[in-house]
What does this fold into?
Amino acid sequence: MQGVRSAIKKNMIAGLLVTIPAAFTYIILEFVITRVDRMMAPIMPKIIGAQGMEILKEYPVPGMGFLLLILFILLVGLIATNFFGKKLLEFGELILHKIPFVRVIYISIKKVVDMISQSQTQTFEKMALITYPRSSLKTLGIVACDTQGLVLEKVGEASVNVFVPTSPNPTTGFLVVVPINEVDFLEMTVEEGLKMIISFGLVAPE
It folds into this structure.
């Protein structure tokens, strides 16, 4: 009887280890694709036409909106890499810069994207431990970049910006500016660090 219980327990744990990651992967992908499909729904008729919509109603294709969004991004990239496309984008940016509230959002996001894509230094490629929220506790975070500008002047010493993700959703978190001599850099990839955060520490690198 004990052997049967042990076998059931072993098989149950093995089954959970396989099904839980697969289930969460499916849930996340289904959530993203469904949201993108809903977002693209109002403009779908303009892209594929009335006849195309009739075909989709008869033969639904999950992720069609997601696929069209990917194609749209590729098209924008193609336009942005030629001379006339660059001029068109510059004109569009000029218009956005004149809209008060939109200007703040667009410029902030654009600066972050430009910094990550053009920076010669490593960004979001290191994991570190910092002392937070009090001296006896350590918090796992992602080193975003070196602290610069006015914040660096106020801190008064070489520092880094550390993004501290929350568990189990690492897309939210907060920013901490930490003097570099108080940062414990880890021999851990960002992927390994995120796995540890998402799993509440159950999955840790060797």
